[in-house]
Amino acid sequence: MTVMRWNPWPARSSFGRSLDRFFNDTPSYAWWRNSGNLRIDVEDKPDSYSLTASLPGFEPDDVDISITGRTLTVSAESKAETDKTEDSYVLRERYSGSLIRRLILPGAIDAADGMSEFKNGVLTISLPKASGSETHKVAIGAGE
User: Fold this and answer.
1) Is the pTM of this model over 0.85?
2) Separation of alpha carbons 58 and 133, rounded Å
3) Residues in contact with 68: Cβ distance below 8 Å, sequence separation at least 6, in sequence order
4) Which of 102, 107, 104, 123 is nearest to 44 (CA)?
5) Tell me, what's the pLDDT at 34?
6) Of the four, 7, 32, 111, 119, which is 20 to 30 A from 21 by CA?
7) CA nearest 73: which of 36, 95, 40, 97?
8) Domains of the chain
């Protein structure tokens, strides 16, 4: 005899899949999936971390980078066009507003020597690893 798990919510899961298809397949809701997201690639190089973020439509003055310890914060703010009213749009997919992303880097960095470049909507950040970032073993004493 085969034992099958009973699912009390089969209709709900079907409904959930229908909603997912609606929002994922409708082009006018592309903003809903991606608004507020700041995606960053982090590459671990031998002597530094290299980070790349896509910020289309932003200017260098719109972007702020800060580092506290191993935590990197990238934020950006884009202002909407003020000469047009919301009522004049039939479809509005371009994002305007604030983006923020915080991530903890895997190792210690030398933030003072960090460099960044913003070109064609792509932000590139290079953060050298701190010279004392090697792993050291600490001996455990036997106690008294």
Assistant:
1) no
2) 34
3) none
4) 107
5) 47
6) 7
7) 40
8) 37-83+94-128 (2.60.40.790)
